[in-house]
Amino acid sequence: MSSVRENIHIVRETIAEAALKVGRRPSDVRLMGVTKTVDDERIMEAIAAGIDIVGENYIQEGKRKIEKMGSKTVEWHMIGHLQTNKAKYAVRLFDMIHSVDSMRLAQELDKRSRNADVKTDILIEVNVSGEETKSGIPGKQALDLIRDIATLDNLSIRGLMTMPPWFDNPDDARPYFVALREVRDRIIDENIPSILMKELSMGMSGDYAVAVEEGATIVRVGTAIFGARP
Ligand SMILES: *Cc1c(COP(=O)(O)O)cnc(C)c1O
Q1: What's the gap in Å between 151 CA and the centre of ligand 1?
Q2: Tens digit of pLDDT for each residue in 157-208?
Q3: Distances (CA, A) of 92 to 22, 115, 117, 139
């Protein structure tokens, strides 16, 4: 069986290859290790191998791991759907929240950030596929939501996140990555004060190379690093 370290090496090489293919710098893409259900030992192996962003989906599981492994050398990002009643834990625990898709959630995160005396970096999750079961704000409504959230003093919008439908052929995900990039470009054109549209969080184990070709700045990779989840 290949080790976590070897897998990370392979993923990094694939990222570099995809970036160079389209004239991007490999260093402009950050690799997140997605660690839901992954045991502590393998997470520490990944951190030792240079992973400096760890992504968790659940508050409870993330809290336990962050308290154990610390947040000095790595960033912890919340990538799962977040309920408003967990907002107060999220802002204390995580360096960035990728899954903000409503004003209601944003207002709660803003209030809880103010109480904790922090400014929280967030991404806006966009549902570019229009699938009804998916979380994320539809692309057409993203601009209005971002204008509203931009008025909240304790949140800092850094970019966009998406999760396309799952395909056997990663190339089928390409139109969704292109769509997210186009939403970003439209928002940049609006020159909204106090927001940054730097990050495009897109691409998972099956399709991160395609996502890098289309402009991803953070890829979220679990299975390709840690193996299949139970
Ligand atoms: C689980 C998860 C990932 C990683 O998925 P893999 O296919 O294991 O790489 C990425 N993003 C989100 C939001 C996830 O929930």
Answers
A1: 30
A2: 999 999 999 999 999 999 999 999 999 999 999 999 999 999 999 999 999 9
A3: 38, 10, 10, 29
